[in-house]
Design a protein that fits this description.
Blueprint lengths: L1 E2 L11 E3 L14 E2 L50 H7 L2 E8 L5 E7 L8 E3 L1 H5 L5 H10 L6 H14 L6 H8 L3 H5 L9 H5 L2 E9 L2 E10 L2 E5 L6 E6 L5 E5 L10 E6 L4 E6 L2 H14 L14 H5 L13 E2 L15 H20 L3 H12 L11 H23 L5 H10 E5 L2 E4 H9 L14 E2 L15 H4 L21 E3 L6 H12 L4 E4 L6 E5 L1 H5 L1 H4 L4 H8 L5 H10 L5 H4 E5 L10 E3 L1 H8 L36 E3 L6
Parallel strand pairs: 2-23, 4-8, 14-15, 18-22, 20-21
Antiparallel strand pairs: 1-2, 3-17, 4-5, 5-6, 7-8, 7-13, 8-9, 9-10, 11-12, 12-13, 15-16, 19-20
Length: 662
């Protein structure tokens, strides 16, 4: 085990990462992987976790829908483009629901509620096939939706679109609507006393929304101060909530609940808002009252009492395929794309405000700000980037890249090693515009999609082959210098004229983007050094490592062509040397080059924006109460005076690891 953060760390998670020597064949199917330039062996497979050690274990992962299932449609799909109209029509199928079958196994069914029905009905794929043809709907969904959606979500959309496009009430359709089956009769009617855990304490059969449009029938059991969600026949927990981490319990009104005929409620914690479905209003009100009675005003730490933090803050969403081990960070609130329309201006303002809030989370020890931040980034799911101009796209995704870095650092701390950095780049994801991307995919498949692949790169780094219809089409090599992951490579005076330049990032604005990219390139390339060897006509040029990685884009193997390409961003002193190269005989033989070694020591990103100072200075530390009042979340210190942001660093070890089912 590698311990990333020490006990006194300033981050929400003090992590230990488990490195396994076993190879996972599903992790990078055919992606290009770089080896170390020194041919060192990098055999370890590294991963952020599925679950934290504690209330749950690797055998009881939270979000799990088996895509290789006879209940789903076979997958044969091309590269896709999204469409709001397709999604709107597909949402006639309200949900994919895992119901408990008579043998105790889960069976996938799909929820529908045609006009005039007073209760959602549950149907299988076979039921839908009897009344409508799925072939044309399959072609539309496969052609218009992200290829990264899971098999369960793809099936839901095909069924919904097929029924939504069928306007005729044929006999099979009427039978489909009027029939009642065993799933309708048995849903949320499972006995809640088949295990020792549930027989000792109060339990109820509920359905829990595990991702957008995906539900699972489970037993909810109150065991002491722990709310446990589990299978009726098994003790292991899918998901747990410590009552002292609950911020509130509230009913969902009928207008906001698509699951007609059932009653919904939401449980709010710092990291997640969990939606539950009850069979009756009586069940919902009974449990809402019971849980509210157990919510204490407690002096303890909210974060410390979260039973399984990785499942609260890092969502293994069943909306997306398990081909890559994605964990969605902007997950506090589930989003339903049809409910909000956001303009380009609003979307740009949202990501800018999210960056400012994320920076405040790093600077201020306030749980109120943390909730504001997590809610803000969750709204990014609703952004429609297809309405953006190319300039707006580049601006938006540059800001999102740095927002994801700030977000992951706030939760996990900066990467503790090269392996940790590489794993985080491939694992940490955001859900935006009905699609999902990791940091690596955002960097290479969206922001750098028009640039050639680097000739070499970080050891063990797999270049993603994902394609996105909203990828940046224009070539702009300044993007190479604009992306900042917080490396300390250029942090010292030897390699940077201004030691405070990095890792500082601006909040990019489309109206002044060109000026900002120039300024960032100038600041980054301030590390370039051109020196003449005393008494000789020989010159040595020192360049950042990125110039070696992207040599093909910047000038190939000809170093003179490379520095000429960069000359407009270099200092006047360096440009004088470059001009003198033209007077040399055989200049290519007289000019050498070396590259600054890349540092895998990382620190938090700093945000350079006038609004940062205004927001931080406007916060009055004395206004942060030491108790929970009027439903607000306050900052608290433990008995040692240490901030709550050192989550699990005192008394509870947070161990992140993958399990095989992830």
């Amino acid at each position: 085990l590698y311990e990333q953060r020490s006990t006194g760390s300033n981050y929400l998670f003090a992590l230990q990462i488990n490195y396994s020597t076993e190879t996972d064949e599903d992790e990078v199917d055919g992606d290009m992987e770089f080896e170390d330039d020194d041919d060192e062996s990098h055999d370890e497979e590294y991963a952020l976790s599925d679950l934290l050690e504690g209330a749950t274990n690797s055998a009881t992962c939270e979000e799990e829908l088996d895509d290789n299932d006879e209940d789903l449609l076979p997958i044969e799909r091309p590269r896709s483009l999204p469409s709001g109209e397709v999604l709107e029509t597909a949402n006639i199928c309200l949900a994919c629901i895992e119901v408990i079958f008579d043998n105790g196994r889960f069976r996938k069914v799909f929820g529908f509620c045609p006009k005039g029905c007073d209760k959602m009905m549950l149907r299988t794929v076979a039921d839908v096939k009897k009344c409508v043809d799925l072939e044309s709907a399959t072609a539309v969904v496969d052609g218009e939706c992200s290829p990264r959606i899971s098999a369960a979500e793809r099936t839901r959309r095909i069924l919904g679109f097929a029924l939504g496009c069928n306007s005729s009430l044929t006999l099979p359709v009427r039978q489909f609507i009027s029939a009642t089956n065993e799933y309708d009769r048995n849903f949320l009617a499972q006995p809640a006393s088949r295990t020792k855990r549930s027989s000792r304490t109060k339990s109820v059969c509920i359905a829990r929304m595990i991702s957008e449009y995906h539900w699972r029938e489970e037993i909810m059991t109150l065991s002491g101060r722990l709310l446990v969600f589990h299978h009726p026949d098994k003790e292991e927990a899918y998901f747990t909530i410590h009552l002292s981490s609950l911020l509130g319990v509230r009913p969902v009104d009928a207008r906001s609940n698509d699951m007609v005929g059932f009653c919904a409620a939401e449980l709010e914690t710092l990291g997640r808002i969990v939606r539950l479905l009850f069979a009756s209003t009586g069940d919902r009100e009974y449990w809402a009252k019971k849980l509210r009675e157990n919510i204490s005003d407690d002096t303890g730490e909210l974060l410390e009492n979260i039973a399984d933090p990785s499942n609260h803050f890092l969502h293994k969403s069943t909306l997306w395929s398990r081909e890559h081990r994605r964990r969605v960070l902007n997950c506090r609130r589930l989003a339903f794309p049809r409910s909000v329309q956001m303009s380009t201006f609003e979307a740009s303002a949202l990501v800018e405000d999210s960056i400012l809030l994320g920076y405040e989370v790093q600077q201020q020890q306030s749980e109120d700000i943390l909730v504001q931040f997590l809610d803000s980034v969750a709204k990014l799911k609703m952004v429609d980037v297809y309405q953006f101009s190319e300039q707006d796209l580049l601006t938006f995704f540059l800001n999102v890249f740095h927002l994801m870095m700030i977000h992951s650092n706030a939760l996990l701390g900066p990467p503790g090693s090269q392996e940790d950095f590489v794993e985080r780049m491939h694992t940490i994801c955001y859900q935006v515009s009905d699609d999902v991307f990791s940091l690596a995919e955002l960097e290479h498949s969206i922001l750098k999609s028009s640039l050639p692949f680097p000739t070499t790169y970080h050891p063990g780094y797999c270049l993603p082959k994902s394609t996105y219809p909203f990828a940046i089409k224009s070539l702009d090599f300044r993007v190479l210098f604009a992306l900042n992951v917080g490396s300390s490579t250029l942090d010292d005076d030897e390699h940077s004229g201004d030691a405070d330049t990095f890792p500082t990032v601006p909040i990019y604005n489309s109206e002044i983007l060109d000026t900002q990219l120039d300024a960032t390139a100038i600041a980054f390339l301030d590390a370039v050094r051109i020196e003449r060897k005393l008494g000789t006509p020989q010159f040595l040029i020192t360049l950042p490592q990125v110039c070696k990685w992207y040599a093909n884009e910047l000038g190939g193997s000809n170093v003179l062509r490379l520095v000429d390409r960069l000359s407009e961003f270099l200092s006047q002193h360096n440009r004088v040397f470059i001009n003198s190269f033209q007077e040399l005989e055989e200049p290519s033989e007289r000019v050498g080059v070396k590259y600054i070694p890349y540092s895998y020591t990382f620190r938090d990103l700093r945000v350079e924006d006038s609004r940062v100072r205004k927001r931080l200075t406007s916060l009055d530390p004395s206004s942060l109460s030491n108790s929970r009042q009027d439903g607000s979340i306050s900052h608290r210190l433990d008995s040692s005076g240490r901030s709550r942001r050192s989550l699990l660093s005192s008394g509870k070890s947070a161990i992140l690891r993958y399990d095989e089912s992830m």
